[in-house]
Amino acid sequence: MRYKGAPKSLPEIAKELNVERIVEGTILQVGDEVRITAQLINAPKDEHIWAESYRSSMADVLGLQQEISAAIAGEIDIRLRAQIAPGGGATRHVNPQAYEAYLRGREHSFQWTLTSVKKGIAESKHAIEIDPNYGAAHAGLAMAYGFLCMNGGVPPNEAWTLARVSAEKALEIDPTLDSAHTSLGFVQTMYDWNWASAEKHFQLALSLNPSSVDAMHAYGMTLLAPLGRFDEALEMMRNAQRLDPLSSVVNNSLGDVYYFRREYDEAVRQYEKTLELDPNFGKTYVSLGFTYLAQGKPPAARKAFEKARDIPSEATPVMIALAGSLSENTQPARAFLANMEEAVDTQYVFACQIAMLHMTLDSRERALDWLERAYRQRASSVTFLNVNPFFDGIRDEPRFQALLEKMNL
Hints:
Oligomer: single chain
Strand order of the largest sheet: 1-2-3
Distance between the termini: 41 Å
Number of helices: 20
Shape: globular
CATH superfamily of the domain at 10-91: TolB, N-terminal domain
Mean pLDDT: 87
CATH topology of the domain at 10-91: Rossmann fold
Structural class: mainly alpha
Helix content: 55-70%
């Protein structure tokens, strides 16, 4: 959709995406009927290869996707018919309204802001209300609940419990659904720290759908990277980027892998590429800030955190305080910490981010106190404790090592 209406030729678009063939077409929905015209273009030469038209009811839209995929695969001679042709795998009818709600849910959830994730949850629930046996919608809801926790929307035990229920329901409905295995693996890495079981689910998801960007992303970012298997994580994220080169989430996560590998210059370049795709993707400014800190550039880090602060959907109080902690006047940041100390017994506090704030203010013992609290909360951020350069200054502390041992890291 980035190229819709863009004044670029097909050869230019193909070069940007690093592809040789482009599929373009039109979709027209009239009532419950959908009509699709697709054509395959030899992009570097801008030559027409093949075109065809299809029609079906919206209830059969999943089967129509398979039909078109098989036709295109055959035309470009990559011999995938046996895997994806109609009849090669089961497809189920889907309620058109449920399908549209599911797609809207994905679109909102993967914008990765607290506001958008809440919209994604609402749309996913709407899809399930329309069709309670729609496995993909349950899997999508599980992912959205995880994102809700990672954005500080609700306490971890509440969010991940709901995520697990949805993921297991998706598996109950369809054990061959790749997204169901991906979502359950996601719960097991980010909340259970059950690395062995999660890896089985991610690998099974990829065996069921070798082109699943969601499975590659979750496998690379929530298991391979936290375990320090950086070469595998980098390969997994590069594959995901090749399949979905315009995804802000995937591009940002690729930068995160470089950050964990201590390849800071490469991480900065990747984050800048992400911001070219979406200048309002707030998480990338946060990632840039931490990378600049690792490079010993506090002024640049403060500017990045301030930029994240200025994006309304990302303006968490901790980010505001973190930016302040890098300024000449740290008193507002210290006052914020004092308030958090008082509020911790009455409200959910993002403990891992508070630990980071203590680190920037050279309160290492207090940082360890808050990391231990984050562990007790089972906060998502501690999943990356073993590889996050931000905590290198306390990595050798016995209390820090004890946390890693408890998490099977």
